[in-house]
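User: Could you check the structure of this?
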Amino acid sequence: MGSANELITLNVGGRLFHTTRATLTKHPDSMLAAMFRGDMQAGLRDAQGHPFLDRDPTHFPTLLAYLRDSRIPPLPHGQLELQELRAEAEYFSMTELAAACKPAEAALLARSTAAEGGGAGPHPA
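Assistant: Sure, the predicted structure tokens are below.
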């Protein structure tokens, strides 16, 4: 295995991301930590030799921000985007980030229901 400061380029669904081994292994229970500690095989590589993750790259910047800063990054404001981010966090075993998405999803659903009149009392006839 390389040093913690080794630069790593990941190909996530065809989009390249640059980070360090230290960032990828910062949360020891995550799938990325297991991959880049050597606990599990890194899997596929692209034509340039970069580790390839067959995932949608849309939310990967948020996952990297979580790994880099060890705190929950700003979450998306849309229900679908939150669900997608939670699914990616769950896939990569980032349980704290996945758990943070659930109350935000519930709050969006409650606001949506209230806006549709689901929280209002009886309507005048």
